[in-house]
Amino acid sequence: MAGDFPATPLDGVAQMQYNTGVAQIGSPLALLEVHVNPDVNVVVGCGLGGTSLINATVSLKPDARLWDDPRWPAALRADQANLDVCYERAATMLGATRVPDDYPNLPKLDALELSAKRLGMSDRFYRPPITVTFKDGKNAAGFDQQRCIGCGDCNSGCNHGAKNSTHMNYLPDAAAHARQIFTGAAVHSVVRDDARGVWCVRYQPADLKRELYDAPELFVTADIVILSAGTLGSTAILLRSQEAGLPVSKQLGQHFTGNGDVLAFAFNTDKVINGVGWGTHPEGVIPPVGPCITGIIDHRNTADVKDGFVIEEGSVAAPIALGLMGVLGVAAPVEGVEMPDPAGDPPLADEARIAESVLRGPYHGAMRNTQTFLVMAHDDESGQITVEGGRPA
C-alpha cells in the first residue's frame, strides 16, 4: 500500500528477487521479480496487484487490425463490439485519463514533443491515457485516492496512493462484495476433481519452502476458476496443470512475444529533463517529474500493422537512479552514439555534467539531463514458454 513501496537504493535491493534456473535469489515475496533466462529476461510485479504495482500506467487500446490474426479465438474475433464495451469498462474502473493541461510543466514531456518535431512526427505526438489520479476524491470503485504529486516513482510502486493499480480499484471492490483475498500464496496448478465436481487449486505458502520437504499438499476448491496471473504466471500454472493431467491446447506456451520492447536513454543531453523520481524527498524539494509516461509518438498508422510502433518518454524510479547513473556513465562512451554539441555549448560541458552527477547525485548534472525512452513495437512472436523444474523458462 502507499508508503510501503521502496523509496531508496537499499529498499530497492531488498525488494528484488531473481528467479533463475539455478536458484531463487532473494525473498519470493519481494516486489520486483526478475525471470532470468538465456534468451530473454522478464520483470514482473509480485504483490497484491501484480505487475500493475510497477507498470508505467499507459492504457492504450491496441490497433484493431491486430485482432484479424486467425490465431485469436474465432468467438473473440467475431465479438469486437463487446470487446469495445469491455475496454470502456476497464478504462472507467482504472481511471484512465490524460495528464491535465493545467498540470505543472514537465521537461521530459517537452523534450519528447521536441523529438517528435525533429522526426517530422508532430502530428503523432499526444498525451496518452494513463491510469493515474489527478484529483483528490473517490475513484470509480468508491475508494478514496490522493492526487498525483508528480514524484515520478511509478515503476517502484506509488507511495502516495495516486496510481490506479488494481489494489486501488478492482481488488477492494471485490473485497467489498464479500470476496476473500489471500496473499503470500504461490499457485502451483489447477486440477479437476471429477468425483466431487469441483476444481482443486493447488498452492504453497510462498516463503515457507514447504516444497523442500515432504509436506502435505495444500489446496482450495472452487466451482469456477479464472486464471489472471499474467503472461508468465497463467501459462506456467497451466503447463504445471498439464503435467498433473489437465487437458490443454497444444498451442499453450507458443508464440510468446515481448511486444518488441526497447528501453533506451539519451544520456547527458544539453537540456534539463528532470526524469529521476523523488524517492524520500518531500514535495517541493525537487521539481515535478510527473507520472512515468506522459507523452507518446504514435506511429501505428502504417500500411502493415506489424510495422507500427510507439515511442514514449519515461522516468527513472529513485531506488535504481544511483545504480543506473553508474551503468550509463560507463556504457555511454563505449556503446553510446555521440551527438555533436549544440552551438555555443561551453567546452567540456558534457564532462562537467557527469562530474556533477558523480559528486552531487542523480538529481544533478548528467542524470538530470537524461531522457528515458520506452518503445513498443512488434517482434516475430516466435518465443516459447515452458516449465523446467516448475519454473517458467
Automatic annotation (TrEMBL):
The keyword Ion transport does not apply. The lineage of its organism: Bacteria, Pseudomonadati, Pseudomonadota, Betaproteobacteria, Burkholderiales. Keywords: FAD, Flavoprotein, Oxidoreductase. SUPFAM superfamilies: FAD/NAD(P)-binding domain. Its cofactor is FAD. This is 4Fe-4S ferredoxin-type domain-containing protein. The keyword Flavoprotein applies. Residues 139-168 form the 4Fe-4S ferredoxin-type domain. Pfam families: GMC_oxred_N.
